[in-house]
Amino acid sequence: LFYGGLRIGEVLALTVEDFNPDTGTLTINKTLSGYVKGKGAILGTPKTPTSNRIVTLPPKVAVMLSDYISKMYNPKPKERIFFSVIYGTIICAFKNTIKKAGLKPITIHDLRHSHASMLINLGVSPLAISQRLGHKNVATTLNIYSHLYPSTAQKLVNDLDKFVI
Questions:
Q1: Rounded CA gap, 52 and 138, in Å?
Q2: Angle, alpha carbons 71-77-83 (nearest 5°)
Q3: What region does 58 belong to: left with phi over 0, alpha with psi -120 to 50, or beta?
Q4: From CA 132, how far away is CA 147, in angstroms rounded?
Q5: Residue 35 CB partners (closer than 8 Å, separation 6+)
């Protein structure tokens, strides 16, 4: 969730064929929208058309995911990677882990926001962040995260001053 900036439904809908271990990429093309007793998971289309995307994972995370998949019993391409994870259970486990660690409570979706915040802090462009998160347009990203961008007014003036003769 954190290292890909993914929504929980996107993670829970991932299938074996959605992961390319050679490139370390995830194809995001569906989301888990619920469960029906006796029928299992209900998969739907992502939140927006631009939510269909390919996300490159950090190499160490890709290796961990590849290792995890290799330990699945005879996985089929269309099998969900986290088929045994139930939304409510992961939320509860996450809350308990946060509490045990003595951290300020956050929601599981806040991992996505933390991912975006980290990218901003690393100097990644708003357009690249928007595409990675699958936002409809860069304005959505800026509306949500603009408060995290440091004021650049002084830097702008300093840079302009270099050109004064």
A1: 15
A2: 60
A3: beta
A4: 19
A5: 41, 42, 86, 87
Contact between residue 112 and residue 133 where contact means Cβ atoms under 8 Å apart:
yes
Quote the pTM value. Answer: 0.83
According to DSSP, residue 71 is labeled T
Helix, coil or strand: residue 42: strand
pLDDT classification of 152: cutoffs 50, 70, 90: low
In this predicted structure, the answer to whether residue 150 has a pLDDT above a threshold of 80 is no
For 34-50, how does the pLDDT look when each residue is reduced to its tens digit (9 = 90+)?
878 877 788 899 988 99
Reference 15, options 30, 5, 1; nearest CA is 30
Residue 82 · residue 88 · CB < 8 Å: no
Amino acid identity at 131 = Q
Query: What element of type H or E holds 33?
Result: strand 31-36
